[in-house]
Automatic annotation (TrEMBL):
GO terms for biological process: Golgi organization. It comes from the Eukaryota. One of its GO terms (cellular component) is Golgi apparatus. This is Dymeclin. PANTHER family: DYMECLIN.
Length: 666
């Protein structure tokens, strides 16, 4: 790394690095540090470089871990960085690129060594690495106000994020500050204990860092909203290598991308240009999803995220507790444009579930399709997504469906030619119709492949919430609703047959397969009942707005015959039977004169809808389901958040050492 080292293979024999890892103490103000920090790399071009870097420097890192307790050189490096960090604001104002570059390089080495410690040492030994210092420091003395070095480092990084503006030549420094904080907090991945017991989390939640909680959350959200691209000079080699700014920028970028070890190879056009937004979001998710359930432990970052308000709205009594203000319009745009990513979907979930101001703003949007369409695309491509991402998208839809204004609005927005919807060509459909199609498809996919009760329960709950507002259903939507019942009824018949066969060959021992069949039957009957309730709710509330649904039900009326006497379905089917008998009689009456075409049948249904008396139908309670977060949500969210960091942070983590989650499940 020192003296313009340009090859990974040379790192293990680099004299400057060898001295850093030796037992020999180096004074924090020794000229050596300027030489060490004047390094550059060729820009990594593939995903294995992060791993290659760690393999190339493992002997150096191991040497530091062994000898640092005697030399204190890791602490000296941090002290050198802290001195630079205090002068950073002034250097930024003067556009001192060289100073910024060297500060960045110091932080990169700190991050690399910290990462080795976090992955290989216990927390106790990690803390010893930070606090180790030699007996003599060549006349250097720590300032009297300096506290534990780990806290000083973390506080300095937080202050850097909130105080130093993001500019072309500070972009990489901001990124490295976030990476270093993520690495320090990644101890959660490698050591199985609650977050609030780790010193690094105590520092973030209760130490001096927490003073900046509101401002830090605002900065991280602002970075996310801005979606600022990496300055081109950071990842493209300049032809003018005599340009100091260009070479410095290239050096910054080269070391910044050394952690792409978990990704497949990326061509330049596939490169994620909005890295600062990405890392800011990941760090925000880490901050806000830890230390949430322990008594006596508050999370100021979570509180800030859940209570910030809209910069364009006047303060009111309900906004007294507001932590800061953000432009909701910018936030909404950023959310909509990046919802394809797990991490954005999780942020949207947190905001719509816990921030009442953001939730109200989203419900007030006339362009709600910009938010809903990416969610539907996630569900439509479920086979390519992890189950957590699907859950988050579904839960957001469920929360949206709790609002009647939303349920009405989605049927008033017309979509044309949806390119990703491949089931059949649909030239025009309402957003509500597309939502129903995609959710039904998700249920069918789940029943045949995933067999996850939680998933289809949420799907059906969302449809149930919307059912009374179903309006102008497209013929294909109506067909799919009825075909869902058809598919479920066939599966129900097969399970019943299997149970009967099992009963014939019954033995004295309890058969686990029979128990599984009974459990499957119970789930199926619950789902069938729910589908019938959704159909009934639509017919009872908006029969006259949905002639195509009545047409589809009439066309497959025999589907319901076998369930009419079933105690689970009898009451709800009486209503559906009343509706179908009424319209069947009218169609038969008109059909006596001549055979009716499908369009003529539809006209008969439309005319009959005006005359049908809905008071004939038995009144059932309104279908209203509300999302309630599971108890102990940390058990779900903490592994999920760290799996996102593992996959999306562009940093290489040693998978074999991760204990928090299984990579096959992430």
């Amino acid at each position: 790394m020192g003296a313009n080292s340009s090859s990974f293979n040379e790192l293990s024999t680099n004299e400057y690095l060898k001295r850093l890892s030796s037992p020999e103490p180096i004074n924090p103000i020794d000229p050596y540090w300027n030489q060490l920090l004047s390094f550059s790399f060729l820009i990594p071009i593939n995903s294995s470089d992060g791993k290659l870097l760690e393999e190339s420097t493992s002997s150096i890192c191991k040497g530091v871990a062994i000898n640092n307790c005697k030399s204190g050189n890791f602490g000296a490096l941090i002290r050198n960085f802290l001195v630079r960090a205090t002068e950073l604001k002034a250097s930024v104002q003067c556009e001192d690129n060289i100073f910024t570059w060297q500060t960045y390089n110091a932080l990169f080495i700190i991050r690399s060594l910290s990462k080795y410690f976090v992955e290989h040492l216990s927390e106790e030994l990690i803390l010893q690495q930070f606090e180790a210092k030699p007996r003599e420091m060549g006349g250097y003395k720590d300032p009297e106000e300096m506290g534990p070095l780990l806290e000083e480092l973390m506080n300095s990084l937080v202050e850097m994020l909130v105080d130093v503006p993001v500019m072309n030549f500070t972009y990489a420094l901001h990124l490295e500050a976030l990476n270093t904080l993520l690495v320090l907090m990644s101890i959660q991945m490698f050591q199985p204990q609650p977050a609030h017991k780790f010193t690094v989390y105590q520092i973030m939640m209760q130490g001096r860092c927490s003073i900046h909680a509101c401002v830090l959350v605002k900065v991280l959200l602002r970075n996310f909203c801005n979606q600022e691209k990496c300055p081109p000079e950071l990842y493209r080699q300049s032809s003018d290598m005599n340009s100091m700014v260009a070479s410095v920028a290239a050096s910054l970028w080269s070391v910044m991308t050394l952690g792409m070890g978990t990704k497949t190879e990326k061509k330049e056009e596939e490169f994620q240009e909005t890295l600062l937004a990405n890392q800011s979001l990941l760090f925000l998710l880490v901050l806000t999803n830890h230390c949430t359930g322990e008594r006596g432990v508050s999370n100021p970052y979570r509180e800030a995220l859940f209570s910030f308000t809209n910069i364009h709205e006047e303060s009111s009594v309900s906004q007294v507790a507001a932590t800061f203000k953000m432009d909701y319009n910018l936030l909404f745009s950023a959310l909509c444009s990046t919802l394809r990513d797990d991490q954005t979907t999780l942020l949207l979930y947190l905001l719509i579930h816990r921030n009442s101001g953001v939730k109200a703003f989203i419900f007030s949007r006339t362009n709600i399709d910009q938010l809903v369409m990416p969610l539907l695309k996630i569900l439509y491509n479920a086979q390519d997504k992890n189950s957590h991402h699907i859950y988050m998208a579904l839960i957001i839809l469920l929360i949206l469906s709790e609002d009647d204004v939303f349920n009405k609005a989605v049927h008033e927005i017309t979509l044309k030619n949806i390119p990703w919807f491949k089931e059949r060509p649909i030239s025009e459909i309402s957003l509500g119709g597309l939502l129903i199609l995609v959710v039904i498809r998700t249920i069918q996919y789940n029943i045949t492949r995933m067999r996850d009760k939680y998933l289809h329960t949420n799907c059906l709950a969302a449809l149930a919430n919307m059912s009374a507002q179903f309006t102008g259903l497209h013929p294909y939507v109506a067909q799919r609703m009825v075909s869902l019942f058809s598919q479920l009824s066939k599966k129900h018949a097969r399970v019943v047959d299997q149970i009967r066969e099992s009963a014939v060959t019954e033995t004295d021992n309890e058969d686990p397969s029979e128990q599984n069949l009974m459990a499957d039957l119970a789930v199926l009957e619950e789902v069938l009942r729910m589908v019938l309730e959704i159909l009934n709710s639509c017919l009872a509330a908006s029969l006259h707005h949905n002639p195509h649904l009545i047409y589809s039900l009439l066309y497959q009326r025999e589907l319901f015959n076998s369930f009419k006497t079933h105690p689970t379905f009898q009451d709800i089917l009486q209503n559906i039977d009343i509706v179908l008998s009424f319209f069947s009689a009218r169609v038969e009456e008109h059909g006596k004169r001549s055979n009716l075409s499908p369009s003529e049948v539809l006209e008969v249904i439309k005319e009959g809808s005006v005359q049908f008396r809905r008071d004939k139908l038995k009144k059932f309670p309104d279908l209203k389901f509300k999302y309630v977060e599971e108890e102990s949500p940390e058990e779900f969210f903490i592994p999920y958040v760290w799996s996102l960091v593992y996959h999306a942070s562009n940093m290489y983590f040693n998978a074999s050492r991760i204990l928090l989650f299984s990579l096959s499940a992430s």
